[in-house]
Each structure stands twice: as C-alpha cells, then as structure tokens.
C-alpha cells in the first residue's frame, strides 16, 4: 500500500444517490492517477484508471438493499522515454461490467450509521470477475446530510482482447 501511495498523483471517489420509496438510482465514480520514473531505459510511466458505475437498487427491508447496474472501466497507460529519442506511447482500454450487489446497513433513524456493501460482476462480459467490499461508518448531521468514512477494496480480472471494448 505504501508503494502505491508513493506513486499517487491524484485520486477521487464520489457516490451520489436518489431515493423514492423502496427504489434507488445512483452513480459511483473512482478516479486514480499514478506516476513513476524508470531508470533503464529512462522513462516516465503514467497510469490513469476510471471506474464509473450506474446502478439501481431495491430495498428488501429496513436494513438490506439489492443493487444492480453497469460499471464503465477505463485504464490508460503512457510511457514517455525521457532520453533524446523522445518517443511517447499511449494505450487505453475500455470495458463494461454488469454488477450485482448487496448493501446491509444499521437501522434508519440512528445518528451513528454502519454499512457494508459487497458486489460481484464481470461474469466474462468485460472482465472475468470484478468485486468490491466497502465497509463504512458515518454520522448523520441532519435528515438529509451526513458524513461517512470507510475503506474500499476493489478487484478486477481483465485481459485485453477478451470481451469489452478495446480502443
């Protein structure tokens, strides 16, 4: 983890959702920029990754929600040789994964909130398998506003040329 953080240039995550009765629609975005310098041959290596998820959900009770949707993935790598050759090469991959998930949360109405979101996807449509585990805890400040803190673990098993959209 410390090695990844030492190469982190920028990272952002955001989740937005709208609820009406038992139904939810939402979007979730993850964006990361990583950079490193290689000594031999001298080169600057940059990777950018974006995961944009659109989902729908249905409450199955006061503490459980079933989710379904699509995640659009983009991975771009750029290799810039810094010697006198001046060669720059860039490759990008795009693919789409269907996802299904389950959100389990503490009962509504409490100031302290706890949630566990898990999902699985891919199923060979884009990646072979994609997964996520996202536990978090939060505090409600008002009926419509609160803060949440958590740790998100994501995994994707994707190989170029097998499913997905290649650019």
Polypeptide structure, described:
- This protein has 167 residues and is mostly beta strands.
- The chain has a single domain, classed as Porin.
- The chain has one helix and ten strands.
- It has one helix spanning 2-6, and strands at residues 8-20, 23-38, 43-59, 64-81, 88-105, 112-122, 129-140, 146-150, 153-157, 165-166.
- Strands 1, 2, 3, 4, 5, 6, 7, 8, 9 and 10 form a ten-stranded antiparallel beta sheet that branches.
- A hairpin with a 2-residue loop joins strand 1 and strand 2.
- The radius of gyration is 19 Å and the shape is elongated.
- 14% of the residues are buried.
- The model is unreliable at 162-167 (pLDDT under 50).
Q: Name the helix and strand elements from N-terminus to C-terminus, one letter apiece.
A: HEEEEEEEEEE
Q: According to CATH, what is the topology?
A: Porin
> Which CATH architecture?
Beta Barrel
**Strand portion:** over 45%
Number of helices: 1
Task: Please tell me the overall pLDDT.
Answer: 89
Number of strands: 10
Distance between the termini: 30 Å
Biggest sheet features: 10 strands, antiparallel
What is the CATH first-level class name?
Mainly Beta
Q: Indicate the percent of residues in helices.
A: under 10%
Low-confidence stretches: 162-167
Number of domains: 1
Integer-rounded radius of gyration: 19 Å
Broad shape? elongated
Helix/strand-derived category reads mainly beta
């Amino acid at each position: 983890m410390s090695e990844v953080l030492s190469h982190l240039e920028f990272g952002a995550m955001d989740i937005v959702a709208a609820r009406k009765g038992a139904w939810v629609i939402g979007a979730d975005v993850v964006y990361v920029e990583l950079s490193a310098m290689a000594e031999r041959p001298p080169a600057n290596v940059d990777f950018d990754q974006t995961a944009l998820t659109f989902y729908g959900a249905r409450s199955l009770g006061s503490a459980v929600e079933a989710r379904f949707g699509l995640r659009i993935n983009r991975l771009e790598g750029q290799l810039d040789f810094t010697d006198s050759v001046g060669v720059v090469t860039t490759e990008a991959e795009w693919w789409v994964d269907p996802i299904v998930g389950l959100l389990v949360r503490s009962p509504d109405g409490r100031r302290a909130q706890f949630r566990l979101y898990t999902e699985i996807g891919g199923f060979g449509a884009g990646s072979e398998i994609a997964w996520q585990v996202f536990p978090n805890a939060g505090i409600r400040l008002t009926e419509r506003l609160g803060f949440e803190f958590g740790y998100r673990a994501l995994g994707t098993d994707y190989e170029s040329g097998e499913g997905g959209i290649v650019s």
